Amino acid sequence: MVRALILETSTMFAEVALADDSGIVASEHLSSARRHTRDLAPVLGEMLRRADWNPKSINLVIVDEGPGSYTGLRVGVVTAKLFAYTTGAALIAVDAMIALAADAPAKFSSVSPIIDAQQGLVYAATLACGENGVEPAFLRATEVMPATEWASQLTPEQFVIGPALSRFAHLVPEGVTAAPPGRFNPSANALWKIGIKRFEAGQRDDIWKLEPRYLRPSAAQEKWDQRLANKEGEKTSS
């Protein structure tokens, strides 16, 4: 029997879920008003109590590895690793783009997920829509680009989904289908569908090597790097 903990913390609206062989049995959302760092562990503890599950009865932990929110990913991945280490559960990390693509209708030839990268930029990729249990596959690797550039490349054969639509839906060209509001974010159910198939196929992620997929420095790091570069420039010119 499989009992799984699912952590989706890549966006401002995190989701924590429990699943067994029948699918998702309980889930809880954490809005932006409930900080991941403060509320994730208490929410998880309460969910386990209500389900009457002993933490050590969980044999699979599935986590969204990003890209996405720096703080959210860090908290989610660290929590997943600690839980898996403590309980001995298997750990499986799922790319956020694959999780988003898994929720796309199979009738489209491809899906273009987007995640906000701040400062008018998005993380964007192109994947083949998964069908008949096949995991979505990358046709174009994830890149960081201006949202306007991403929108200019869309075609009517693609389905658009992702949390960045909350900011950039107005850029989607006429004739291109986008996910409706309320379905922008990666879902625990999508993570479950992908994670359980990998688990059954014998795949596992290394607790000691798994890191969040940030793909670019944080805004704070970029400012710091720029400040150092400016100082070096001043020394050189003097």
Write the layout of secondary structure elements.
Layout: E1 3-8, E2 14-20, E3 23-30, H1 36-51, E4 60-66, H2 70-87, E5 90-95, H3 96-101, E6 110-118, E7 121-128, E8 137-146, H4 147-152, E9 158-161, H5 165-168, E10 177-178, H6 188-200, H7 219-237
Parallel strand pairs: 1-4, 4-5, 6-9, 9-10
Antiparallel strand pairs: 1-2, 2-3, 6-7, 7-8
Characterise this structure:
This protein is an alpha/beta fold. The protein folds into 2 domains: 3-96 and 186-219, Nucleotidyltransferase, domain 5, CATH 3.30.420; 98-178, ATPase, nucleotide binding domain (Nucleotidyltransferase, domain 5), CATH 3.30.420.40. The chain contains 7 helices and 10 strands. The chain has helices at 36-51, 70-87, 96-101, 147-152, 165-168, 188-200, 219-237; strands at residues 3-8, 14-20, 23-30, 60-66, 90-95, 110-118, 121-128, 137-146, 158-161, 177-178. Strands 3-2-1-4-5 form a 5-stranded mixed beta sheet, with helices on both faces. It has a 5-stranded mixed beta sheet with strand order 8-7-6-9-10. Helix 1 (36-51) packs across helix 2.
Structural class: alpha/beta
- Sheet with the most strands? 5 strands, mixed
Number of domains: 2
Order of helices and strands: EEEHEHEHEEEHEHEHH
CATH architecture of the largest domain: 2-Layer Sandwich
Widest β-sheet, arrangement of strands: 3-2-1-4-5
Helical percent range?
Answer: 25-40%
Q: What does the radius of gyration come to?
A: 19 Å
Shape: globular
The CATH superfamily of the largest domain is known as ATPase, nucleotide binding domain
Binned strand content: 25-35%
If you consult CATH, what is the topology of the largest domain?
Nucleotidyltransferase, domain 5
| Arithmetic mean of pLDDT | 89
Question: What is the strand tally?
Answer: 10
N-end to C-end Cα span: 69 Å
How many individual helices? 7
| Uncertain runs | 218-226
CATH C-level name of the largest domain? Alpha Beta
